[in-house]
Each structure stands twice: as structure tokens, then as C-alpha cells.
Amino acid sequence: MTGILFVLRILVPIVIAWVYLNYGLKFWAGFPRTNFTSGRILLTLFWPVCFALNPSYRRNFQKALRGR
Questions:
Q1: How many Å apart are CA 7 and CA 40, to the nearest integer?
Q2: Which of 2, 22, 52, 53 is least surrounded, with the fewest CB atoms within 10 Å of its CB?
Q3: CA distances from 5 to 9, 14, 34, 50 (A)
Q4: Angstrom distance (rounded) from CA 12 to CA 24
Q5: Rounded to two decimals, what is the model's pTM?
Q6: pLDDT digits (tens, 9 = 90+) for 21-68
Q7: Which residues contact residue 65 at a Cβ distance below 8 angstroms, ignoring those fewer than 6 apart?
């Protein structure tokens, strides 16, 4: 039981934070490849919400990450 609690309380938040920061930094670096002209900070900070709710943002996010 202790091993499961360790994973749930320690490792899962670390993995979530790593994914959030990693993809946020990749989006920030690839922002010029998107169709967006402003809002770089907000679009980077709220990328999970925008990605989940907006198909246009999803396409631009993928452009930023893949370089297309």
C-alpha cells in the first residue's frame, strides 16, 4: 500500500508538472510557426485548457511542436 501512495502523492504530480512545463516550453519556442500574432504568454500558460477545448489551437499547437 505504501508504494501506491508514494506513486499517487509524489510521482504523479511530478510527471504532470514535467509534461506541463515541457510542452509549454516547446510551444513557447515554436510560437512563431503558429498563426497567432499575440497572446504568447497566455496561450503558453493555458495550453492544456486551450488544447482540450479548441480545435484551431490544437492544430497550431502541433505546428509549434513539430515545426510545420
A1: 34
A2: 2
A3: 6, 14, 41, 31
A4: 18
A5: 0.84
A6: 999 999 999 999 999 999 999 999 999 999 999 999 999 999 999 975
A7: 23, 26, 27, 30
Q: What is residue 9's predicted lDDT score, i.e. its pLDDT?
A: 85
d(CA 25, CA 54): 20
HSE of 48, CA atoms in CB hemisphere, 13 A = 6
Residue 49 amino acid letter: V
* Encoded amino acid at 56, one letter: S
